[in-house]
Hints:
By secondary structure, this protein is an alpha+beta fold. The protein has helices spanning 3-20, 24-31, 48-59, 114-127, and strands at residues 38-40, 63-64, 72-75, 77-86, 93-102, 108-112, 136-144, 150-156. A 5-stranded mixed sheet has the order 1-4-5-6-2, with helices on both faces. Strands 3-7-8 form a 3-stranded antiparallel sheet.
Amino acid sequence: xxxxxxxxxxxxxxxxxxxxxxxxxxxxxxxxxxxxxxxxxxxxxxxxxxxxxxxxxxxxxxxxxxxxxxxxxxxxxxxxxxxxxxxxxxxxxxxxxxxxxxxxxxxxxxxxxxxxxxxxxxxxxxxxxxxxxxxxxxxxxxxxxxxxxxxxxxxxxx
Length: 158
C-alpha cells in the first residue's frame, strides 16, 4: 500500500468515526471541558478584549453564515455552544450546536446547525485548530438532503 493510499484510508476512517458520533457526543465533549457550555479555539485569558469577543459571539454575531452560501471564508477562530430546543411536534428536547466563526478581520458569522458542526469538526480533525497565523479556508455550501431539505456545510479549501 502506498503512503498516499494509506493516508486516504486513514482520512476516511477519521471522517467516518466523526460522522458516526451521535449528537449526544456534543454534550459529552462539552462536559469533558473546564467550561461545560462553551468551546472556543482561543484561550480565555480573561482580558477585556477576549471577554468582549466571546460576549459578541454569544450575544449577537455580525452576520448569518447562511447568507454567505457560495462564498469562501478564512476561519481564524470559532466558538461553539450547545442549545436545547423543545420539538413542538414530539415534545422531545433536541440538542443542536450554535457555531460562530471569526474571519481574519474578527467579523463573526453565526449558525445553529449540526451539519456545520460536523463539517467543522472533521476539518479541524484533519487540519488542526485555525489561528490568525494559520487560518482555514472554507467554502460555505448549501446541500440538498432528503425531502428537499437544504442544509449548510463547510467545504475545506486546503
